[in-house]
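Quick entry between incubations.
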Amino acid sequence: MPVELISANQAAALSATLAGRANRTGRGFCSGVYPITPATECMEYLCAQEIEKSRVVRVESEHSAMGVCIGGAATGARTFTTTSSNGLAYMAENCITAASLRLPVVMVVANRTMGPPWNIWADHGDSLMMRDSGWIQFYCADNQEVFDTVLCAFRLAEDPQVLTPFMICMDGFTLSHTIAQTKVPEQKEVDRFLPPTSIPHQLGRIPHALGQIELSSQVAAHRAQHHNALLGAEKVYKTVQDSFEQIFNRRPAEPVVAYRLEDAETVIISMGTIGATAEQAVDKLRQQGVKAGSLRVRMFRPFPADRLRSLLRGKMFVAVIDRDISLGFGGILWGELRGLAEPGAVVQNYIAGIGGGDVRPGHIRDIVAELKHRSVSAAPVIMEELL
Amino acid sequence: MNEPMLGGMIQTELDRSTPFLRSGNLNCGGCGMSNILQLLGHAIAEREVKLVIPACCGAITAGNYPQSTFDVPMILTTFASAASVATGIASVARLNNEDTRVICLAGDGGTYDIGLATLSAAAERDENILYICYDNEIYGNTGGQRSSATPAGASTMSTPKGKKEIKKDIVAIMAAHRIPYAATVSLAHADDGLRKMRKALDTSGFRFLHILSPCPTGWKSEPAMGIELVRLAVRSGLFPVYEVFHGDRYVINVEPDFSDEALGMYLSLQRRFRKSGMTEATLRPEIDRYWHGLRSLSGRIVPARRFME
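Done. Structure below.
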């Protein structure tokens, strides 16, 4: 398999290109794109590709970028876009539409701080804002994972049992602009993995309406269907992993990546690139005799609650690192998983790296040291306040 | 195309076999949009169509899931997204060599206000879309607030004493994009309207139709008087009926007689102009100024033909 030296932004666009081309025998590929730092390079790379039976529309706003994807997906094309931060906020209304119309749009979000204050660096606050919108959300930790997750995203989103849009999140600059060797499969292999798409409610020749008025009972029924489809996506992802492995000879990462967890007494839980840093910190801590382990939550929606509950069984010290803050509450990841830990466990929240702050292995070792002094969980700690 | 002056509203062999707008739709009595859809159905005939409707009264027209009152495949979009969603649909249709007309049907709020940037961008890209703005000069769906299409002097729920600002000139804006075809359509001149709809349906690239759409609920007028009100607006010069090719060739289609009597009747048949005290005399200078510009653009200094009843 050829190896390319590309950034994660380019890897995402290249993956989408291969996926788009794979639908050339279907209804083609249609994408609306609009630039925003740090996702710009992804759309630029896509705009430079020659894709058979495709159109990449350079629109005037993120709102319209998603609009084009909605129109494309509703008539059976494979669709992709990319954005970040305030762009995602501007796009939000149509993101909800894409989800509620059950259209398998795939989007890469280069996570960036919501402004103001204006800041272009990594922060998960943008994509987490869309937590409840009915999208699948995966957070990636390296270039290969971004490439692979984009391919898996099309397969999972287009699965008739799932049919929801899919957001692949990567830390802005920290990952989006990091150049690394990335294994890129041949088109014919991607063709096998991603057969031509079609959705059952596609607009064809028969008169029917998408997105109509519904009574409350109909809304509740559709929300239940959507919710259950998302909950079922975790199981479908396993079949996607199996098929991916069969075709590409490597297995895409698990929904939750456990690292040296079995005998760990202290567990560090995080999302995105902080998870990769945490694994390094774990190695160092182990050398120092501290029994630490790491859990990286890759799949945030649907939330893998059962998986996390069983992984956290017997773990009495849990540090949850959030690169986000729900103002007036605390870390969003912490809020979701604190109820899943062993009863009596210390589940302490550390808010670190927001606004793109650099989170190094040393910071994570400090967190573990701080956690050891606690006998009960307290209010979330904002790391900058500790300094 | 031998429909009588009555407006081609009668069934001919050229017509589609099923109505475009089905009975049981949720439009108010006397809604101009119902007339537009009736006329549009005649124009579409057996052509394949996909309809895109953003938030507006048209979204209500479609009715409750799972029934639809439109006889074509359609999608209801967010308020500012008609032209972008239509871009996606038209792109995929072209990729698959499908002879599909993608039609946006949007109100004045979705066209003049919230959807203007999306509309402008789609026009600039010359997307293969027919965009129809049914302009009832008010946010009807939300209960009647002012839009930038509301004429000066009209009372709305958000301008109870009458709007101060004059109506935005949307056709000039669209013509400035140099799109292949932009036109205004009068419901009182159905033969001209039908011709323009057919022309717009069979032109490729971005086409824009602006249609004055009576709204008895918002205009506080008699439902049965809708077409008559449009006729008075055309006759008095208030609603010019013209078309613009490629942004530079202007053709005036109906020559008004600029009758103050017609203008007075237009105002007095609607209660929305009462509070502001808008009269023929206050409106006339702006109408004259507009027509002066239109005549210069059309290259016709003298009237083409007299208005015919």
